[in-house]
Here is the input.
Amino acid sequence: MSQHRLERSEQKLAMLLLIPSFLVIFLIAFYPLGSVFVTSFTNRTFASSVETETVGFDNYRKLLSLKIMKLEPIFDPDTGLQAIDDFSGEPAYQDPIDLLPRDPFRYKPLREFDLFGTRYVYAATDPKFIQSIEDTLFFTLTSVILETIFGMMIALIMIKNFPGRGGLRVAMLVPWAIPTAVSSRMWEWMFASTRVGVFNVIAQWMGYTDGQFPFLTDASTQIWAMIAIDVWKTTPFMALLLMAGLQTIPMEVYEAAYIDGCGAIRRFTKITMPLVKHTLLVALVFRTLDALRVFDLFQIVFAQKRYSMASFSYYQLIDNKMMGYSSAASVVIFFIILFFILLYTKISGGIQND
Here is the structure.
């Protein structure tokens, strides 16, 4: 009985000791988050004396309302054939501006696309925010995949014993150690739209461009340029984490597999990947969440020319003073990140049960 009472006393003491920790967590995490949730349902203006009113879900409707509508072809009354647009030289269709609804929120065209011979317009009440979500998700998916592949390749090389390994490991970490502000400006210069930029020099030498390609202003290459910068800077971080996992694998396992006749690919798939999967999952979690919250890279290189989710929220608050609208965007970002956290948690549980 006395042992049972002692255990209960220890549990009560532990709970009492945890109370300050819970209070700190509430003050620095849950309270600000709750404040953002509440503000997202208002039209509150940043640094203003304008009276705040509750607008319900209007901020979310304006942020996330999407619509896909069919565009009717325009026919030439003289020939009966579909007219040709004088500006683009392509078949003419109904102007999306005339078709898209304006009440209660005005829809703006994001892009047009063809499906089974029919032209459609993809529109949103805030195309910039929808575009920022698409860009951030594509940036995250592509950069994390490339960083994982290159990081694994570098880690597999760096765990080998060879002369100069220590110096090479230090050199490998240099891109990661450089501040993002510095590396972003450096790459911005290399992507310059004239022969000042090294990539234009290389592209012209290979015959792909005339040395005047606008990598950072052409919509087709903007996100790929961001991915290149991020992969260069963050691959060493992935390599460092994966190296730590690879070094825990006993060399005897590889030696036994080699004696049994397993080739390099089979050793990698049957030994390396199963034994390093937990470290790999941790690395993926860190990089995915970091990429989803990307701000400084887009902010420095693009400013207001193209947004990530975080930079969009920032500009709504600082430039437009729309605190309620910015809070709603932040809440959407929170739920997107939460989805990835839950996804990784589910994957992690499956791996633990293997």
